[in-house]
Specification:
single chain, about 375 residues, mainly beta, Neuraminidase, 5-stranded antiparallel β-sheet, 4-stranded antiparallel β-sheet, 3 helices, about 10% helix, about 40% strand
Length: about 375
Amino acid sequence: MVTYKKGHQISLLLIILSLAVLISSCDPYGSYPEEGEYGNSPYDGLLTWTRYPESAAYSSRSNHASAVFDGKLWVIGGYGYDGFFSDNYLEDVWCSEEGLQWTKVLDDAPWHGRRGHALAVANDKLYLIGGYAVDETAENTNDTNHYMNDVWVTEDGVTWTELTPSAPFGDRAYHGLAVIEGADDDPDTIYVIAGRNRGIAYHQDIWKSTDGQTWVRVQDSDTLGRRGAMGVTVSGTSIYILGGYAQNYEATFDSAAKRDWKKIVVFDTTTNSLSRAGSPPNSDGINYDSRAHLELVTYEGRCFIFPGASITREYENSHPNFYSTYSFTAPGTVTPDSAGSGFGPRYGYTAEVFDEKLWILGGYSLRGYEHDIWYAETEGVQL
């Protein structure tokens, strides 16, 4: 054991504090990189991107969750490193009526700080499901820092009720969440898809519920594969799933399995069946590599595949193969959209369609954790 004299302890503390002040006074990333810097290709696809000149009022973060609920855009929780002694696991709730000006609704939600959780809007309620939760005001125990399978609900974003602390689908984070609207008087249905458990294991199942309390498993299949941090979107009664971290990818995947991982998985909610369809092609210098923490978004009748991080080189996102964009109207007809993304290399962000625009919120870019605001429009282009 190393010991220090009292005077040495004070000197060491002063040195640490001085370094903290020096680091906090600097902007390690400088101004926002112009498109084309760091090798990121300019965007020349179907969308027209705009970066709002001011950052959002909420702090920089990634692995948060967002939703469109009650006529507003919402950003909830996430992780944003702000120093060793800071509360980096966030439990705040923010909303915006137009996507630009943000209001803090809650600073300390009862579900504690968490990342890798997911939100669903169903039956006029907002649900928060799972994730990795950390109560940084408590001791570091298994009761305060672990993967969750709880379900919370709110009707206004302010008052949250825990429906269950332990849903039967088990602990998970970085799972997919999708909602299929009910026909006529039928209720909406929430689907929980795959996800990571305990940091090393992944699920390959799908569960559904109409109330957030009663859950039924409808799939557990190798066709889906054990994965987490994938892209998920809804088209009609189908759920599309793409990419994500895979369990034992390097150790067990042969070349054919790696090609299959690039394919879009289609879950038909009317038959509870799974299939795999087309994968993003390489064409005219626009290349695709399997990625995680990506977004798959349906906008104006077309699905877009947006940037992510490498699934083999953790958190690597600067290579062009991870921020090229693609689009399709059917899973078997994926085509390149652009070698660039419009908002640069990024992962751990969220994307929402709100007020007839497609919004990109937060995430981790080449600058670090973000709270910048990007939105896209079609500018009259037929998608």
